[in-house]
Design a protein that fits this description.
The chain has about 270 residues and is mainly α. It has 2 domains: about 1-120, Alpha Horseshoe (Serine Threonine Protein Phosphatase 5, Tetratricopeptide repeat); about 155-265, Serine Threonine Protein Phosphatase 5, Tetratricopeptide repeat (Alpha Horseshoe), CATH 1.25.40. The chain has 15 helices and no strands. The longest helix is centred in the last third of the chain and has 17 residues, at about 245-260.
Length: about 270
């Protein structure tokens, strides 16, 4: 893979939050929930240790304490808890509550990936792709991305879509790129939505369809920020110039319906 795409993909892993998307990290838990988790964690329950570690990482219901999160995740990871292994690996990778240690992050990601966890497979793939803590191995990165993508991991689908579109490390295959970007877009990945919008606008790989193009670009723009959003809005507005008011209204209706059917996570 080119250095440009390797750097691009490496940035994705930096955006992966150490805090799990668990409901425990999204909602403020009650004191009763925390007390129950703590009791089970003290009895050696790995799931409770992991979930309590999430709360200490996020500061939900307890004071934010990375050292305590580290301790709890290590207890769970030592019992073979895959999510805790991944969480602990992410903390070592980012240096959150512990000195950064890419070799230890790699070891923990691998343990979790071997249990079939898609997010760990993707994280391990990023390390192999970028050569962080391990000799760069694009073939192994691709294998891991595919394993994660096949389990529905949206970032893995997006990354593979980029690689197939550009023929970067794989034979260029625009049909496969479209398939992967569509899967990621259906999960709310804004850059994959933009890819689909561009494809429908130019008719590359799909029949040209300005309504579908406008819909996907509109959905992407509502989720992007900064320069990415500005460029997407500009592309959508240029596309709209030859469209009739009825076509634009239809595209906007479809975007609203898509949003209603795919509520965003808090």
């Amino acid at each position: 893979m080119t250095g440009r795409h390797a750097r691009h993909i490496a940035l994705i892993v930096l955006a992966i939050t150490v805090v799990s998307a668990s409901v425990y990290a999204q909602q403020e838990p009650t004191p009763e929930v925390i007390a129950n988790l703590r009791a089970h964690a003290e009895q050696g329950n790995s799931e409770a240790q992991y979930l309590l570690g999430i709360l200490y990482s996020s500061g939900k219901g307890v004071p934010k304490d990375y050292a305590e999160a580290l301790r709890l995740n290590r207890l769970a990871a030592d019992q073979g808890h895959g999510d805790a292994q991944y969480q602990l690996g992410a903390m070592y990778s980012s240096g959150m509550g512990v000195p950064q240690d890419n070799a230890e992050a790699l070891r923990l990601y691998r343990l979790a990936a071997e249990q079939g966890l898609a997010h760990a497979q993707f994280g391990l793939g990023v390390l192999y792709n970028s050569g962080i803590g391990v000799p760069q191995d694009n073939a192994e990165a691709l294998r891991l991305y595919r394993l994660a993508a096949d389990q529905g991991h949206d970032d893995a689908q997006y990354v593979l879509g980029v690689l197939y579109a550009n023929g970067d490390g794989v034979p260029q295959d625009y049909a496969e790129a479209l398939r992967l970007h569509r899967l990621a877009a259906e999960q709310g990945v804004a850059l994959s939505m933009r890819f689909l919008g561009a494809a429908y606008g130019t008719g590359q790989g799909v029949p040209q369809d300005y309504v579908q193009s406008h819909m996907w670009l509109n959905l992407a723009a509502s989720r992007l920020t900064g320069e990415n959003r500005e460029k997407t809005v500009e592309a959508r507005d240029i596309l709209a110039q030859p469209m009739t008011p009825e076509q634009i209204a239809e595209a906007q209706r479809l975007a609203r319906e898509w949003d209603a059917a795919h509520p965003r996570e808090p």
